[in-house]
Write a structure and sequence with these properties.
Layout: E1 4-5, H1 7-11, E2 16-23, E3 27-32, E4 35-40, E5 44-49, E6 52-55, E7 60-64, E8 69-76, E9 78-85, H2 87-90, H3 101-109, E10 119-123, H4 126-144, H5 149-177, H6 191-202, H7 210-216, H8 221-232, H9 236-254, H10 259-266, H11 271-282, H12 286-293
Parallel strand pairs: 1-3
Antiparallel strand pairs: 2-9, 3-8, 4-7, 4-9, 5-6, 5-8, 7-10
């Protein structure tokens, strides 16, 4: 039965993990309760998610938010480097990463966009992917030697910087070919957006309304909604739904609470509505998610 990889036993208090794998066989479907960045190197294979499947290429960068599942199939000497980031740390010591538009886009915006189901696949130049894989290997080596938290976070910054710079270059090339299709996220998040995000993450179960959030930052609700979508790719209430689904995924995987109670704990007291919203975001019903999480 597919497993769920849990932050608590794997990270052992660290904010990041890193490992480089040479895949010669299938990797069964699995989920995480942390954020994973997988950088693809040479080799062949296919990537499967709730959105379907696609052939992998050297330079693919896969980002998965908590609750998203994926698998690898038909792997032949496929190099995949994983950089995993603690969701606890993203709400605490790594929260400042959200201030950087390129990091916000990579870790939050794109995999949380409507229809993404917590998964985003981007492409970078193979040379940049090779550089990122080497940086993840260095992170793995420092983890094995119990390096200081500062050293580990330095490796994370290097990895994110390589990928972010490569994405900018890839977007510039795409813009030169098809200007109308180019996208950008080059503006810092508005302070009101950051305040709202902090409020939502501090108490996702609260019955938030857009009017309440807008009143707290003294902005017109429609204007706040536009600012929020510009910064995160989501409306404030869609962001709240993603946050609730991620918290629900952790409870489903790590507790024996009845499913209806899990929904109530994260702010969805109606079991039917909870199941529908969770499936829309995670690609699985709460029951299916818990079943796949069982070991």
């Amino acid at each position: 039965m597919p497993e769920t990889l849990h932050e608590y036993p794997l990270f052992a208090g660290s904010a990041v993990l890193g490992a480089v794998h040479l895949l010669t066989d299938d990797v069964a479907a699995h989920t995480h309760d942390f954020v994973e960045l997988a950088v693809v190197g040479p080799g062949e294979g296919r990537h499967l998610t709730s959105r379907g499947e696609h052939a992998l290429h050297h330079g693919d960068v896969i980002v998965l938010r908590p609750g998203a599942w994926h698998a690898f199939a038909d792997c032949e000497d496929l190099t995949v480097a994983n950089c995993c980031v603690s969701t606890r740390a993203l709400r605490a010591e790594l929260a400042g990463l959200r201030e950087f538009p390129a990091y916000r886009r990579l870790l939050w915006t794109e995999p949380s966009a409507p229809g993404a189901y917590g998964v985003h696949v981007a492409g970078v130049d193979p040379a940049a992917a090779t550089e990122a894989i080497a940086a993840i290997a260095a992170l793995e080596g420092h983890l094995e030697r119990n390096a200081s938290p500062g050293r580990l976070l330095g490796h994370l910054a290097t990895i994110l910087g390589i990928l972010a710079d490569a994405r900018v270059e890839a977007d510039a090339r795409a813009a030169s070919r098809t200007p109308a299709a180019a996208t950008s996220d080059d503006t810092a998040a508005h302070p009101a957006v950051l305040t709202c995000i902090a409020s939502l993450e501090a108490d996702p179960a609260k019955p938030w309304r857009l009017d309440d959030l807008a009143a707290a930052v003294t902005l017109d609700p429609a204007y706040l909604g536009r600012l929020f979508r510009k910064s995160t790719g989501l409306s404030p209430l869609d962001y709240l739904a993603r946050l609730r689904a991620e918290r629900a995924a952790a409870l489903l995987a790590n507790s024996d609470l009845p499913i209806a109670r899990v929904g109530a704990e994260v702010g969805w007291p109606d079991p039917t509505y909870f199941a529908r919203r969770f499936r829309t975001i995670a690609g699985l019903t709460p029951t299916e998610y818990r079943r796949r999480s069982a070991t």
